[in-house]
Structure formats: structure tokens, C-alpha cells
Amino acid sequence: MTLVPFPLPVPSIDNQYWFDKCKEHVLVLQQCKLCDQFNHPPRPNCAYCGSSNLHWIESTGRGTIYTFTVTRQPVSRPLLGRIPWVVVEVELNEGVHMISNLIDFQDEDLQIGMTVQVVFEQVDDDITLPKFELVA
């Protein structure tokens, strides 16, 4: 079966560095130099204090499952051949919440609070996406 591709994100001036680091298999987060809060997704100003004084830090790439949903029916063509499909909201160790997918899992064992770590999927030459897998 030939898999139908998912629509891909389009990098912008605000998130190009994030996508570049994902291609290197490094997960980075923006941190405000004024209030020390982490921001995700990347943006030109801090979501907490409005400062434009942001810098990038390398994330541990580890966190816990905050919530998840399992799709068992291929409700769109790109899901054909990819079921079950798990969408997770991960709370990274830095406190940031990130929406992604969980790979290599036994879905009957999934529970909120399980520890996960980032892995990367190269979708094409330009886009590599962070996904998560359970930590044994």
C-alpha cells in the first residue's frame, strides 16, 4: 500500500531555526531572557511578558504524557495504513507542552503520566518532525 503523505508544515522566519535544529535531531525551545519563561511554538515575542529578547536552549527531549487520543479509524486518506494513530500532548521537563505523535507503542498500555523521549522522523529533505516514544 502506498501511503498518502500528510500536509507538511511550512517553516517561517519565526520557526526556521527550530526546524533546522530538528533536522539535526536536536529539540530546542525559546526562552525569554527577561522573564525566563519557555515559549512553544516559536514566536517573535514572549507569550508571557511580550519581550522580544528570546534565545534558544536545547531541551532534554524528555517529558511525560499529559493527555493523548488514539485514532482507530482512518478518517482521512493519510491515516490509511497508519492506524492506530496516537496524538499526544507531552509536558516536557522544561514545562512546555508540545503536541506530537507517539510511535512504537502498545496502545492498550498507554497511560497519562508515562515518561517519553523525543525521536525524529525525517519526512523529506526539508522537514524533520519530533515524535515521541515511551521510555522503558
Description:
- The protein has 136 residues and is mainly β.
- The protein folds into 2 domains: 11-58, no CATH class; 60-136, OB fold (Dihydrolipoamide Acetyltransferase, E2P) (Beta Barrel), CATH 2.40.50.
- Helix content is 6%, strand content 38%.
- The strands form 2 sheets. It has a 5-stranded antiparallel β-sheet.
- A hairpin with a 4-residue loop joins β5 and β6 (97-102).
- It is globular.
Total strands: the figure is 8
Our Rg estimate from Cα atoms comes to 16 Å
CATH fold name of the largest domain:
OB fold (Dihydrolipoamide Acetyltransferase, E2P)
- Structural class, by secondary structure, is mainly beta
What percentage of amino acids are in beta strands? 35-45%
Globally, the shape reads globular
Q: Summarize the main sheet.
A: 5 strands, antiparallel
The amount of helix comes to: under 10%
Query: What is the domain tally?
Result: 2
String of helices and strands = HEEEEEEEE
Mind telling me the CATH class of the largest domain?
Answer: Mainly Beta
Strand order of the largest sheet: 6-5-4-7-8
CATH architecture label name of the largest domain: Beta Barrel
What would the average pLDDT be, to the nearest integer? Answer: 94
Number of helices: 1
Unreliable stretches, pLDDT < 50, 5 or more residues? none
The N- and C-terminal alpha carbons lie at a distance of 31 Å
